[in-house]
Amino acid sequence: MRTVAGLMQERALTNKMFDYLEHGADMGIDSIEPLEMPPAGDTDLRAAKDLVGDRMSLAGNLPSQRFVSMTAEEVEHLVGEAISAAAKGGGYILRCASLVAGLNSFKTEDQMERMIANVECFIEKGPKLGRYGHSP
Q: How many helices (H) and strands (E) does the chain have?
């Protein structure tokens, strides 16, 4: 990876950013996140990997802001899809697109429990579905 003054260049760009990926790679950005999928963003992770995956690492694309309304099966499916789309050849970091996972003070207790269960599912399924150096 390229560095500036010995430092790696990482950028966090939210919402609709797919059209800027190639420009970012051309500028020497080493890693980009959160790569939000529609409707919040416009990033198709497989297309992003094909476009710039050999020049920068990609991170994210899991809509954790929706964890509050998703099932564990939906979370597991999205984790598997992200790994399938971007992990081949290295350079993909499995992470959520939102650091807060939809957390705010307006959630019911049931919603909070579902969100916590889905965060736990995300944490458990990532290493089980795919790890570098191991077959999924």
A: 4, 6
